[in-house]
Structure formats: structure tokens, C-alpha cells
Amino acid sequence: MEAALDELLPRIVPGHSFKVHVHQGKSDLLRKVEQRLRAYARMAWFFGDVHAMREAYPKVPRTLASQAEFRDPDAITGGTWEALERVLARAGYYTTGMPKVEVARRISAYMDPQGNTSRSFQVLVEGLGRQVAT
Known about the structure:
Elements: H1 2-12, H2 26-32, H3 38-41, H4 44-47, H5 50-56, H6 80-90, H7 100-108, H8 119-133
Helix pairs in contact: 1-7, 5-7
């Protein structure tokens, strides 16, 4: 997740500096933060921008976003990392295991923060926008 945020934050809040605070998994994060940051714990963001996924991994099906299980990125069941790993493996990528940081960097490099359909991602973008406006 840190890799994706390093790539995306400068585009979401241009002209502002930031520091990503790394946590040791979800339970560590929830212990340290009052509110649950659902977008941090889930990778629905990548499914919210299939164009970015296809730019990074051209063999991913164009029809991915229209498939029932992926229409609502935040409602993907069974784990979004696991779903992403299955999608990439079916397309011929990382058939023996997915390197999460590499995948996060590659996809987030193409993501359009304003066009992402993941509601949890949009909540993050809106929250950051409010923070830098104050």
C-alpha cells in the first residue's frame, strides 16, 4: 500500500508534501488510528480503475469492470488482493505468486484519482482534498 500511496498522493494533492506512515498490518493500523481507514485495508482501488490495470497489464480483459463480481470494487468478496492475484494469473501474469509492491506501483502509476469508481478510494480523495483546503 505504501508504494501505491507514494505514487498516487502527489497526483491527488499536487503541490503538497506528505509522509506515508507504515503500519504492521491492519490490526496495527486499527490500534493506532481512531477511525477505521477502510480504503487502506482494502485494494478495491485497483478494480476501480480497470483502465490503469490494463495499462500496467495489457492482457487483463477489457470487460473486467462489467463482470458481475467486479462491478462494485468495494463489494468484492474473498479478499481484493486475492481477486487481483487471480485476475492477473488468468491473464498470464505472476502465475506463481504476485509481488504486491510491484503490482501496486505498476497499477497506481496509471490511475486517474478523479475517475476511479471505488467509493472507498473516492472517500480518501475527498478527505485529502478537505485536509489540504483547511
